[in-house]
Amino acid sequence: MGKVLQFPRRNVSDSLRTVMCEMQSHKPSPIETPWVLSESEDAAFLHLIREWPCFLSIEEDPDLHEIFEQYYEDRLTMSQDCVLEFLFHMREPDSFFDIGNALYTWDEEDRNYFFSSLSLQAEIIDQIKREEC
Prior knowledge:
Elements: H1 14-25, H2 39-51, H3 64-72, H4 78-91, H5 99-105, H6 108-132
């Protein structure tokens, strides 16, 4: 995918790039849903969530199950809800994600992280396509 827009860049650690590559290349089995992940995917998904600026303010250190529980019980902020919906959508395209609402809800730091994440996803997809040829 060519770069159509120049989004703000954020330094992405090699470990985060690896995690995103693993999640991008995983092919879900027919019985998997975006919420039923393998142990390594749980860790990767949690790592991605914790990288978002709006999740940095959480004082306790919840595990993935606790974050999902907070999401379903509507105990997360709207910004945090949008992060989870975006990540669900990246994992399973049929999952709901309202990009307009997310861009309106997120502050500048989260929007910039979102744009950086999209750029990184495009780079990973390009890399996967090159390796398939």
